[in-house]
Design a protein that fits this description.
mainly alpha; 4 strands
């Protein structure tokens, strides 16, 4: 094992306290993701191909509000059901114990999909078209959230001997992959660049959302090999983590959406 390694900066998760209220880095990262989504979504509303689809700033603001609710509710419910099922059975009120933390991206995604379905139905729009519009807005928020995890010194990686291995005080004395930063780079920045470039001009309906599912699923699947599995779950069948098993359906569904989108375009 190497003797030279990095040490986590041990940043205080609380930025500032005002009376009983604490401003936390993780909460600030959520705000950064929301504000970026608001800015980029309004930018998209001015692009000709989105204008032609009837998008405008008022319609988008309604969508963003409900999508944010979907992220929070779905993220919490998903975490409890996917990662803390047995604990939930023993303590059903744990679902509402938001002070203990715990959010799941895959649960948040399901929550957003439910909101998108309702929004599409309410506004007589295609669910796939609504998904295409919102997909490029998501990655930066995901990346910001992973930076929040890094600041908190949580969700660290597996033990490693790479030169950039980092010791996280809460994880023991051995250096580990800073997998939160891997996720921020791949699921956040890189995926955003790919989606932003791909969505600059009209694409087959469903293909942008499909590309998001494939991109996130692949990035998460790969990084999970460097991320420490949840201690109470460990590795599951085939040596895959829960995150990898939850990412596989995303990849399959995303590929299916892309193929169907282009087949439908060719028919037309």
């Amino acid at each position: 094992m190497q003797t030279n390694y990095l040490v986590h900066p041990n940043i205080d998760p609380i930025i500032i306290s005002i009376g009983p209220l604490d401003l936390r880095w993780y909460g600030l990262m959520y705000l950064v993701g929301f504000l970026f989504a608001w800015w980029w979504g309004n930018r998209q509303c001015r692009q000709p191909h989105y204008v032609a689809q009837g998008w405008n700033e008022k319609l988008f603001s309604d969508l963003l509000f409900w999508a944010f609710i979907g992220v929070i509710v779905g993220g919490r419910v998903g975490y409890v059901l996917f990662y803390q099922w047995q604990y939930f059975l023993d303590n059903p009120l744990y679902l509402f114990d938001i002070t203990s933390g715990g959010m799941s991206f895959h649960g948040g995604l399901l929550g957003v999909i439910a909101v998108l379905w309702w929004f599409a139905w309410r506004n007589q729009r295609s669910l796939l078209a609504v998904g295409d519009f919102i997909a490029p807005l998501v990655p930066i928020g995901l990346g910001a959230g992973r930076i929040g995890n890094f600041i908190n010194g949580e969700l660290w990686g597996r033990v490693t001997e790479v030169p950039w291995g980092m010791v996280f005080p809460a994880a023991g004395e051995l250096p580990r992959h800073p997998s939160q930063l891997y996720q921020a780079g791949l699921e956040g920045l890189l995926l955003f660049v790919i989606l932003a470039l791909y969505s600059r001009k009209p694409r087959p309906v469903g293909s942008i959302g499909g590309l998001f599912l494939v991109g996130y699923g692949c990035a998460r699947f790969v990084v999970e090999y460097a991320r420490e599995p949840d201690s109470h779950l460990g590795l599951l069948a085939f040596g895959w983590s829960m995150g990898q098993w939850l990412s596989m359906p995303m990849i399959v569904i995303g590929l299916g959406l892309i193929v169907l989108a282009y087949k439908q375009q060719n028919k037309q």
